[in-house]
Amino acid sequence: MSLLASLLRLRADASGHAIRTSHVRHLHLSDQPLMMLPLKRTGPAARPLAVMLGTSPLRPRLLIAPPSGSTATMLTALAKAVIGHVASHHRAKEYLPATATRPERARYLDAPQLVVPNQQAVRFLRTLASGLRLRRLDDQSPSANSIRLLGQWLTHFTDRAQIPGSAALVSLTDLLVMHWITGQSPQDDDLATLLAWIYPPFGSTDGRDAARHAEAPDTYRGAGPDTDAAFDNEKLTPLVDAYARDPTPALQELEKLLAAYLQPTWDRLWQAYALLQAIPPTASAGRRWAAERAEFTDHTTHLDQDGRPRPARDQAVSAAISLERREAARAAFNADRALEDPFVRVELRTTGDAVGGTVIAVDDQHTICGPGGRDMWRPRITLSTQDPVHLEPGRLLTSHLHRTARYQVRGLIAGPVDTLVELEITAGMGTVDRPNHTVLPSAGAFLVLTAAPEHFRMPAFPSRDQTPWTHGGPPPEHLGDGDGSQEEQ
Amino acid sequence: MTCPNHQQEPSADPATRTILDQLATLTHHGMVVDAPPGAGKTTLVAEAACALAHPGAPCAVFTQTNAQADELVRRLTRLDPHLSVARLASSQYAVPDSLLTRPRVQVSTRVQNLTTAHVIVGTAMKWATVTDRHWPWAIVDEAYQMRSSTLLRTAGHFDQILFVGDPGQLDPFSQTDTSDWRGLPHHPVTSAAAVVLDHNPDLPVHSLPVSWRLPPSAVPLISKAFYPSTTFRAGTTQAQRTLALTIRAIKRTPLDEAIEHAAHTGWALLELPARYTHRIDLEALHTVLGLAERLLLRGATTTCERDPESKTLTAADIAIGTAHSLQAEHLRSLQAQHYPRLHGITIDTANRLQGHECAVTLVLHPLSGRMDASAFHLEAGRLCVLTSRHRHACIVVARAGITDILDTHPGDEPVDLGTPPKSPDGWEANHIVLEHLADHTIRS
């Protein structure tokens, strides 16, 4: 947490009102998301207790797993709901022409979006998914197949959730704290209290007051997937015992209990969703969603043509590729956020990763000797700033006003009050005869520069069967029947 | 035909000699050499590169940073003036003029242009961009700092690879979540040396037994705290390494006491009153810079086996090490504004001081002023780098109360199946170092 965020948190606490930080939304939000509110049983890692889900706030479906015995019926119903939602996006496609690096391809016009309350729910779905997708197909019943397919789709969503900037599976709590800072300590980020801070109900004096009410032990509802101990002991255990004696009435009681337990959180989920959907999305959110649609198309194709589940553990090559994709996505997402969000820029300036300052000198005659011996025009500017700049010489910066421009840090001169930052413009400045003046500023202009996104592409990793001896050589073939085989797709 | 190295003297160090002899006839895919701080790792890499180089089939050398690559090129040209050395560099990186003008050194951004070189030196990231090549030998320097995923890109281009590195320094890291791969032998963020040893347990492993950098006063502690399984000894004697203060202080401050103690014993801990501070603890930062300035003002001189005549300590012989880059940045700007005498001093984080050597190190303790310890601040490699850069003395600056932070630290790091426990353990290493420094504490 930056010092600025800590300061705002203290201010929110002092005033009792949540503080709005970011006024733009960095993730695409669908008009018809599949909202999912899972609950798990205390104890086992991935035994579901119930899932409330639906695409409309008014008609939630509640699926209940019996306290003991097989969960297949519940999982089959869940599979039907999730796969049905996914399939509703398998309709219209668009065709993208071939580019220099990629052949012509098709892409679905929309992709499914799952929305859950928090990171814990994402983790629970991941654990559930890895168990389901590798289930043995002992009985070839249609339900066994659909449960396995549910595992494969949940794997797709939870894998995408690992990619920064992806909106395939959205955790609402994480998205809320991107836009508001409350007086709540960040460790206690919880849907009920956050929402009380941000959107206090009528009758409460301020956000802090509302949050205190929301935290009152007798009415508080955690957003899952873990249930709290008091609920387990006082409500759930008697019904579990009753189920052992006589299943049918106990199951009806359980359904009634869980419906009442989940309903307030369900309403809050949609309230939070509506709040977030009202925030205008950024241009790059749309771009990332287009990439998401391509991922969705690719996964659909994989399931149709190959169908083997992702193995339990990555092989050397797939792990390295996956790490590289995550790191690239993280860098690109951070760069996009800095370019599109004034609050992010301000925060980066306080930590020294961005710089804002006044142009005090412009050398528009400066040239360097290029590789072919030709002179290349590289105008230089000097910024004077009071920001705590921590940029090393050689770093490439860009400006949110002119995104193709690149300013390379040449040096820093620390003074008693101001720091002078010497910059060389390496791209986007036009030509000597027709300089682009947004990029080549005049003295006195105020510039804010942030880290430039990197577009450098490394060559591909070796293929799986070319795994070198250092990493154990090529791994054995992947059979994909879920019997503990650990190969990649 | 080997490279024209006939004029070269055989290596003085017997351990290096043994390794070079075995390399010539090695039937395994590769070899791993573990080297403690200052054990002649760069010398071994240079000599091995020279011995393995063939015209037409050059020996590839991987370093982790551009500065290390430049230094290695200089070392190679000094070692054998007839050797044709190439520096493979990224187009983003400005190669120093001193290399560009050196005879028999080629510099290029494309490996295709380097056909006549005996040895090609480049960073691991640059080598990762080379495709469709096949050569007999590669040498990986600082193999414990290179990611296994970077090695995966290029390992297939070589028949045999020599890995050289210091297992006690900092491991590679990633800012993204890597928990998916915990416990896998081919974890992409594990080190290149670790992944190779895990998959090839029969690979010969050597270690260099003598530290030529660390003074005899430092070796027992560093060896015990950070290298419990491969002990090493000092290559010099107490009498060869001296640090003396030629100017007497008129009024002795705690700073003077600390540098006098360090000059005498090789270690000092200057303890500031206990206080919780933000990462930027101005009092501690000024204390560190004040210590450096006092060393120069007191006319510190050193003698060592390289310079038996006494040599005056300059700012360039001192390094200041921190845990966070923010602290290093702040120190640098304080130095520029308030301590002009210290112009030329090295101030950097532990990550960037890896491979650096200096006469005296001043360390801002990673746990100083903190309320709690964390995996980052406890990491053994971080403290190891900070306390093993010096040839004469190391002075640590810290707020009082670190022992309490360690004692109350709950050991709640999750244990993962398949992940061997970290050796040495950061908590334990921190305790060993503090216990040693307890005898060298000066309170301010």
TrEMBL record, chain A:
Biased composition range(s): Basic and acidic residues: 208-218
Region called Disordered, residue ranges: 208-231, 459-489
UniProt superkingdom: Bacteria
This protein's name: Uncharacterized protein
Lineage of producing organism: Bacteria, Bacillati, Actinomycetota, Actinomycetes, Kitasatosporales
TrEMBL record, chain B:
Record-linked InterPro entries: Coronavir_polyprotein_1ab, DNA2/NAM7-like_C, Helicase_ATP-bd, P-loop_NTPase
One protein family per Pfam: AAA_12
SUPFAM superfamilies in alphabetical order: P-loop containing nucleoside triphosphate hydrolases
Protein name: ATP-binding protein
Any GO molecular function: 5'-3' DNA helicase activity
Keyword Metal-binding: no
Organism the protein comes from: Streptomyces montanisoli
PANTHER family per the UniProt record, alphabetical: DNA2/NAM7 HELICASE FAMILY MEMBER, HELICASE WITH ZINC FINGER 2
Domain of life: Bacteria
S-adenosyl-L-methionine listed as a keyword: no
Keywords tagged on the record: ATP-binding, Helicase, Hydrolase, Nucleotide-binding
Ranges for domain Helicase ATP-binding: 22-175
